[in-house]
Amino acid sequence: MPTSDSSLARLYNDDVADDVPEARPPARIGPNSLIQTGQALSALFGEETARQIFDRAGIGHRYADPPGTMLDEREPQRLFAVLCDTLSDQDATRVLAEAGHRTGHYLLAHRIPKPARRLLPHLPAAVSARLLVRAISAHAWTFAGSGRFSGEVRGWRQPVVQLAIQENPLATPGCPWHGAVFERLFATLTATQVSVLHPRCQAKGNDCCEWTITSATGPLRRARMSRRAAADRRGREDRPSQASR
User: Where are the beta strands (DSSP E) in the chain?
Assistant: First the structure.
């Protein structure tokens, strides 16, 4: 065992330091995690509360000047954490769900090509769900950051979508932001009513975040057919009958 100063120094020589890997740059994530959360906070609790929460998260400048490009995932991570610490559980869930809904709406309007927006709702739900999962997987870093995203669709008549993020940087209890984003995208692009469940949540002690999305194709398609039938019936009633001619 080394006892002299020179021997101890050799334990911390430059050669060892050269073997230490360089720190990785922070992961990037989409700006809507900040932008839409700020808008949801302002809409539900007013601009003053929104500014205060952004200030407490150390990103007050982001509220006044929203980012237009990808940003350090630690910024929305701090924002979500401060929001959950500041508001009640119920209010925090409301804000994050509203922010997720707004994010989904933005993605539909600005990130989903118009031909896809027109085509997917007219395909069988199982087909459109598979195409949507593939598209989400290709761009998962925009909402998962350093997390590892996976997704699959099982079944054809009653498709079941399973999504997961391991090491989710934006995990909050129940993950209402993610759930609302997924609900908005799948409900719109598969033209079905959807149920989004979150059976495993990293913020509640599970090893990852997982969502199960099921589509209720029957009721919506029946409603669509009912509207068409009603229109046809009105058209027949508007046409003069043989007796009245």
Answer: 28-29, 71-72, 148-154, 160-166, 193-200, 208-216
Q: What angle do CA 156, 161, 164 make, to 5 degrees?
A: 155
Report residue 36 as tokens: 């839409």
Q: How far apart are CA 62 and CA 72, in angstroms?
A: 12
Q: What predicted TM-score, i.e. pTM, was given to this entire model?
A: 0.79
Q: Do residues 170 and 149 touch, judged by C-beta distance below 8 A?
A: no
- State the first-to-last Cα distance of the chain, in angstroms, to the nearest integer: 114
Model confidence at 25, pLDDT cuts 50, 70, 90, reads: confident
Q: What is the CA radius of gyration of the chain?
A: 25
What are 38's two structure tokens? 């700020």
Average pLDDT, the chain: 84
* Alpha helical stretches, state H, 70-216: 74-86, 89-110, 114-119, 125-138, 141-144, 176-189
What average pLDDT does range 195-206 have in this prediction?
A: 97
